[in-house]
């Protein structure tokens, strides 16, 4: 069975993934042929495990960029509340240069109120968070990922005057920018304007059809071809996970390939496999050897 769905490994970095773990994961990906290693961008466990540690996402990505040669790296996704857009853009561009052009940027609103309170980040209403996201997307995309011409911006949350961003990204036209969510009207409009990919989390096949149709329609309205539609979902390859549900990518290699074929048939172009045990390097090798 030849599958066109692009496979990426997705690691929940806030669940006590150490630097040694990241090195082992990156080495296993490059050794086995996995092209892309993504991570979440959180500072606290999302499973309520308060003793688990979280290394900063963009610090880790820059460090991994320096010691890998083929692996693409990125976030799914970086909350706009964590960093000023100029700081985020410069971190991404630095990683793009360090890696020689192997970086993707996922951007979103953030959702964990406890995490924001613990770190001292404002946790705004959903409408306000979407306002912030929209401003950050314009600043990052047009100001830092643009052609280097002078850029000024004045919004409710940010103001930039006469920015001439240097250096420009290595990747042309710029590092791929990913948005994610449930494809609501505003998110779809922003994705059609700024994103190179749209991702949705743990969807059913019906949800994929519905959300992809909304993103495609928004792209058509904006005069663009449809952008790639991808999913991120819990995964266990080579063995059944006891907590698996219908939206998981789970089971034997043949079962996983059959599930990927179902996803491909409804328009999914990429799957980010959320590993449940980041130290299971045998599974990483299996994914690389059998699915890529």
If you had to describe this structure to a student in words, what would you say it looks like?
With 292 residues, this protein is an alpha/beta fold. It contains 9 helices and 12 strands. An 8-stranded parallel beta barrel has the order 1-2-3-5-8-9-10-12, surrounded by 8 helices. A two-stranded antiparallel ribbon has the order 6-7. Helix 2 packs parallel to helix 3, helix 3 packs across helix 5 and helix 5 runs parallel beside helix 6. The model has no long low-confidence stretch (mean pLDDT 97).
Can I get a quick summary?
With 292 residues, this protein is of the alpha/beta class. It contains 9 helices and 12 strands.
Q: How can the largest sheet be summarized?
A: 8 strands, parallel, barrel
H-E order: EHEHEEHEHHEEEHEHEEHEH
Low-confidence parts: none
Question: How many strands in all?
Answer: 12
- Helicity level, as a percent range? 40-55%
Round the Cα radius of gyration to an integer and report it.
Answer: 18 Å
What is the straight-line distance between the termini?
12 Å
Q: Estimate the mean pLDDT confidence.
A: 97
- Name the beta content range: 15-25%
Biggest β-sheet: strands ordered side by side in the sheet: 1-2-3-5-8-9-10-12
Shape descriptor reads: globular
How many helical elements? 9
Q: Structural class given helices, strands, pairing? A: alpha/beta
């Amino acid at each position: 069975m030849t599958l066109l769905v692009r496979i990426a490994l997705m690691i929940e970095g806030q669940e006590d993934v150490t630097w040694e773990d990241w090195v082992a994961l990156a080495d296993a990906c490059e050794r086995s042929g996995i092209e892309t290693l993504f991570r979440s961008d959180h500072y606290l466990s999302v499973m309520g495990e308060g003793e688990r540690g979280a290394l900063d996402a963009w610090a880790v990505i820059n460090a991994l960029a320096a010691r890998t040669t083929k692996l693409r790296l990125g976030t799914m996704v970086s909350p706009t509340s964590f960093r000023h857009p100029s700081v985020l853009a410069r971190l991404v561009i630095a990683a793009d240069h360090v890696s020689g052009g192997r970086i993707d940027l996922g951007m979103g609103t953030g959702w964990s109120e406890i995490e924001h309170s613990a770190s001292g980040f404002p946790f705004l209403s959903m409408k306000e968070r979407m306002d912030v996201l929209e401003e950050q997307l314009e600043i990052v995309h047009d100001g830092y990922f643009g052609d280097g011409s002078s850029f000024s911006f004045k919004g409710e949350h940010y103001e930039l005057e006469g920015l001439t961003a240097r250096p420009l990204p290595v990747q042309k036209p710029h590092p791929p920018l990913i948005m994610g969510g449930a494809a609501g009207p505003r998110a779809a409009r922003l994705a059609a304007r700024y994103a190179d990919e749209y991702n949705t989390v743990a969807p059913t096949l019906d949800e994929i059809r519905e959300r992809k149709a909304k993103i495609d329609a928004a792209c058509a309205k904006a005069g663009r071809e449809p952008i790639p539609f991808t999913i991120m979902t819990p995964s266990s390859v080579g063995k059944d996970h006891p907590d698996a549900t219908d939206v998981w990518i789970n089971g034997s290699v043949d079962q996983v390939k059959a599930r990927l074929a179902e996803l491909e048939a409804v328009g999914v172009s990429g799957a980010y496999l959320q590993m449940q045990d980041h130290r299971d390097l045998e599974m990483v090798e299996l994914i690389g050897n059998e699915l890529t």
